């Protein structure tokens, strides 16, 4: 059993801490946000993630998972320290490493014996060296090894992804560090999960390369969807045929209003910035970023067209605020682009999301929020689906029509039956499919 400290109790830190404690280790999650630590101590999990609350509770009950605001003490008492603080996008597109550097300094000041310093946060290539230099400058006699251990967690499926990952990547400079980290992940090693040992820099690159590729795949199918609309093709059939090809696979070939969340937008910008900075630009990634931005604007144009460019005074129901289902995350969501433009055009926005309304209210407290999709669409001039929640997939279209002032729908996630929309006399649009 290892003594593990996780610095940062955000999405990555909390899931990682709970997951590692499930592996049988003694884990302390620390954060300078005292209110957040108090919430966690009282049993309240501040983020929505299926299965996380029960995982936290059972490991707290078993005495393996603890929460503290004493960063210095947690560093001193640990064998392995995970850095899991935020790395938000800076004004130049690069990741902001201020929080990482603060943590590195705290580690340098409190390093009292040999430890593994391991970064979970998504950081640019070269950050490992920077962290090592900071620690050594503060504590020249410090004994430690540095490891890059990127996370590959999907919001909405993070607990499953951590406990049953496709692979674990360990970037290190010594065999000793690799051996210790294999002990941390021993249950996965026994279950024959691929554990890849690389250099630090390679591990840092793997995270960005994986996320950017998936983002590029989304932008690609969105561009194909837009072309399908013009040439009268069906993007669903195109994507299905493409996905059968084993070289391509069907994953992430789902057109929509553009990607969002905490990872893809930030990571594509950071990787593109790294390319420019090192004189090796990445034009495909730059294009994916541009396509993603234009795709969200395209949805605004579709709403305009459905309402004959007469938005002022109209009432529009927005169903789905989170960037994807099974999460309350609204960071970089299509709703964050579309709703402000509708408001500026004089639209009365009626919003509903089963989970994410609390987070969205922090940004837009003055729009109208409703507790059901039925209440949101009641009397609306148009309805826009932005998130493919299961309850929206199962909407009764007869009921939807009876509640709306005019039966106008923009289905940006292609979850509604076009045959039914046609038979009921809806005016509708979607992404990449033949419309009325």
Please provide a written account of the structure:
By secondary structure, this protein is α/β, with parallel strands linked by helices. It folds into two domains: 3-198, Rossmann fold; 213-429, NAD(P)-binding Rossmann-like Domain (Rossmann fold). The protein is 46% helix and 14% strand. It is built from 19 helices and 14 strands. The strands form two sheets. It has an eight-stranded mixed sheet, with helices on both faces. Helix 1 links the parallel strand 1 and strand 2 (26-30). Helix 5 (98-110) packs parallel to helix 6 (127-138) and helix 12 (264-277) packs across helix 13. The radius of gyration is 24 Å and the shape is elongated. The model has no long low-confidence stretch (mean pLDDT 96).
Question: How are the secondary structure elements laid out?
Answer:
Layout: E1 3-7, H1 11-22, E2 26-30, H2 34-41, H3 52-61, E3 65-68, H4 71-76, E4 80-83, H5 98-110, E5 115-119, H6 127-138, E6 144-148, H7 158-163, E7 168-172, H8 175-184, H9 186-190, E8 195-198, H10 200-231, H11 235-244, H12 264-277, H13 283-306, E9 315-319, H14 334-344, E10 348-352, H15 357-361, E11 368-369, H16 373-377, E12 382-385, H17 390-393, H18 397-403, E13 408-411, H19 418-423, E14 427-429
Parallel strand pairs: 1-2, 1-4, 2-3, 4-5, 5-6, 7-8, 9-10, 9-12, 10-11, 12-13, 13-14
Antiparallel strand pairs: 6-7
Helix pairs in contact: 1-3, 5-6, 10-12, 10-13, 12-13, 13-14
């Amino acid at each position: 059993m290892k003594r593990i400290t996780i610095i940062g109790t955000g999405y990555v830190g909390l899931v990682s801490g709970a997951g590692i404690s499930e592996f049988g280790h003694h884990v302390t999650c620390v954060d300078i946000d005292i209110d957040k630590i108090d919430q966690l101590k009282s049993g309240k999990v501040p983020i929505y993630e299926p299965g996380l609350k029960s995982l936290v509770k059972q490991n707290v009950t078993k005495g393996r998972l603890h929460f503290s605001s004493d960063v210095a003490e947690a560093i001193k008492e640990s064998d392995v320290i995970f850095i899991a603080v935020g790395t938000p996008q800076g004004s130049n597109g690069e990741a902001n490493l201020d929080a990482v550097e603060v943590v590195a300094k705290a580690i340098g000041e409190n390093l009292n014996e040999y430890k593994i310093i391991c970064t979970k946060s998504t950081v640019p290539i070269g950050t490992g060296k920077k962290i090592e230099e900071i620690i050594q400058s503060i504590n020249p006699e410090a004994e430690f090894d540095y490891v890059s251990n990127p996370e590959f967690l999907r919001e909405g499926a993070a607990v499953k992804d951590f406990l049953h990952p496709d692979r674990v990547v360990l970037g290190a400079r010594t065999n000793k560090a690799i051996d210790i980290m294999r002990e941390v992940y021993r249950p996965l090693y026994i279950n024959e999960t691929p554990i890849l040992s690389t250099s630090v820099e390679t591990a840092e690159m793997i995270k960005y390369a994986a996320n950017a590729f998936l983002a590029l795949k989304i932008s690609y199918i969105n561009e194909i969807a837009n072309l399908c609309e013009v040439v009268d093709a069906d993007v669903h059939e195109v994507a299905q045929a493409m996905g059968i090809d084993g070289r391509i696979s069907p994953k992430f070939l789902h057109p929509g209003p553009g990607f969002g969340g905490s990872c893809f937008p930030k990571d594509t910008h950071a990787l593109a910035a790294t390319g420019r900075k090192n004189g090796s630009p990445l034009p495909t990634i730059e294009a994916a970023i541009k396509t993603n931005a234009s795709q969200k604007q395209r949805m605004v144009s579709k709403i305009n067209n459905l309402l004959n460019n007469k938005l002022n005074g109209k009432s529009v129901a927005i169903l789905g605020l989170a960037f994807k289902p099974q999460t309350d995350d609204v960071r970089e969501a299509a709703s964050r682009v579309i709703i402000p433009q509708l408001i500026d055009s004089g639209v009365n926005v009626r919003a509903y999301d089963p989970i994410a309304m609390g987070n969205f209210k922090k940004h837009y407290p003055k729009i109208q929020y409703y507790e059901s999709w039925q209440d949101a669409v009641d009397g609306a001039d148009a309805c826009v689906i932005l998130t493919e929640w299961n309850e929206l997939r199962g909407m009764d279209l007869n009921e939807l029509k009876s509640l709306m002032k005019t039966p106008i729908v923009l289905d940006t996630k292609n979850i509604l039956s076009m045959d039914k929309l046609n038979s009921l006399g809806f005016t509708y649009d979607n992404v990449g499919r033949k419309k009325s």
